[in-house]
Amino acid sequence: MIDTTLDIEQYDCPFIATTDEHGVGFSAIQWDFDRVEDRLETRMVVEADDREALTVGLSALRDRENVREYGLLTRRGNVAHIRTVIGETDAMAAIRDNGGYITGPFYIEDGSEIWHVGFDDVEAADTTLSELERDNEFDVLDRENTELPEMQDFVQNAGAAMTLIEGCRDLSDVERQTLETAVSDGYFESPRGATLGHLADEFDVSKPAVSKNLRRGQQKMIQRVIEAMDELE
Fold it and tell me: From CA 199, how far away is CA 174, in angstroms rounded?
């Protein structure tokens, strides 16, 4: 499989047009293409800087010409979960016509979209990229030929990967930020590049408080790593 990651600007995509004009971002969590109706159904997480920006962005998306169906599923603060149905874009048509397929979730922000697209052979990938150049702007961020053993390994260990992802989600904002700062500042290096006092000053808390946040974050992640190791094939 030829696995390609694209940063693409589609001129006929309602999501891209919305993020180009408003401070919102879209993350696809489910997508299904109807080949009979030539339409794409998605469920998206929408994030904005604040509640007002989210309201304006969602309203703008709902009124886009290529949005056939729109539904607000849930909303909390500056984050919403929506269902949409849009018509096929030119880029989607080029990929489908050449046997391409989406291999991962797509993310849209600031007028462009990150796509993960797979092809069964090099010729199909090259033909698609050539066709995309006619009506779209894009950059190829990554391209690699994934051999069968690598694909098999990925599929077999997808559960372990999800366990690690869930571990990251288990962290509170403070725990995540504390771990990130500890790593970037060299707290876990030998010799240490940062001390508990340094981290405490960074977050304007006491040494016991920052130590507690570190221990909690480490405990959650280590537990998930152990679970993931048990799931590895």
Answer: 12
pLDDT at position 155 is 56
Residue 83 vs residues 44, 61, 80, 104, 112: alpha-carbon distances, Å: 6, 12, 10, 18, 20
- Residue 39: beta bridge partners? 34, 87
Task: Label residue 191 by pLDDT band (50, 70, 90).
Answer: confident
- SS3 for 88? coil
Q: Provide the 3-class DSSP secondary structure of residue 110.
A: coil
Q: Is this model's pTM higher than 0.85 or not?
A: no
pLDDT at position 233 is 57
Backbone angles phi, psi at 62, to 5 degrees: -60, -30
* Structural domain boundaries in the chain: 2-143, 153-231
| CATH class label, 153-231 | mainly alpha
Do residues 10 and 16 lie in contact, with contact meaning Cβ atoms separated by under 8 Å? yes
Residue 225 has pLDDT above 90, yes or no: no
Whole-angstrom distance, CA of residue 197 vs CA of residue 214 = 13
CA distances from 198 to 172, 177, 187, 207, 208 (A): 21, 14, 9, 9, 12
Confidence grade of residue 146 (pLDDT, cut at 50, 70, 90): low
